[in-house]
Amino acid sequence: MVGAQYPPGRGDTAPLPRIASAPSHGGRAAVFKGLGLVAVAVVAGLVWWLVRHDSGDAPVAQAPAKEFSFVATAGPVVSGDCAAKSSDSVKRWFGSHPCQRLSRSLYATSAGSARALVSVAVVTMPSEADAQELKKLVDTDGTGNVSDLVADGTAKLPDAPKLPGGEYASRVTGSQVTIVLAGFYGGHTDPPTLTRVAGEALELPAQPGK
């Protein structure tokens, strides 16, 4: 015999079936987010290291050290008549190819116990083609040159060397031709050193202080 069945009273609660909880995605998202931040940090650190590494190892261009110190002794003397300040074939060439400007100066320097005098003449021509042609002419032996301030009597320096018999150097920069003559005082001879003096003098301005 089965006992009587009674409906649950109002204060009773019928048992509910257990429902399996759904897997949580919040924790997994947090993990992935954390991993993403770590990856970004690693990449940023690698890029920074590469930048520092490359900049530290890259060679830095250095200006060549100067061997000589030059002191201005005369000039600048500026003229617009290059033919009057030149000789031989160069003088005749200027007769048909007038320059726009000529600036000449003298510098002194020392090489050990020897003293040298340097002439720097900068000739400005109307065009780059004229400048190239002038350089080719003055570079050729026996064609004459632009006179230095000692040779034409403008500068009076006791015991100054005759610069045309010394070392020569020239350079073209656009429409300008720089012409250098260098010589040692007292008959001193040292061609290799005088060649270096003339080479560095190409960097000197025809107008000291410019």
What does this entry show, briefly?
With 210 residues, this protein is of the alpha+beta class. Helix content is 30%, strand content 22%. It has 4 helices and 5 strands.
Structure description:
The chain has four helices and five strands. The protein has 210 residues and is an alpha+beta fold. The chain has a five-stranded antiparallel beta sheet with strand order 1-2-3-5-4. Residues 1-14, 16-25, 28-32, 47-51 and 53-63 have low confidence and may be disordered.
**Tell me about the biggest sheet?**
5 strands, antiparallel
Beta strand %? 15-25%
User: What is the residue-averaged pLDDT?
Assistant: 80
State the separation between the terminal residues, measured CA to CA.
Answer: 128 Å
Radius of gyration: 43 Å
H/E series: HEHEEHEEH
- Please count the helical segments: 4
The helix fraction, in percent, is 25-40%
Category by helix and strand content = alpha+beta
> Which strand order does the major sheet show?
1-2-3-5-4
The low-confidence runs, each spanning 5 or more residues with pLDDT under 50, are 1-14, 16-25, 28-32, 47-51, 53-63
Shape: globular
**What is the number of E strands?**
5
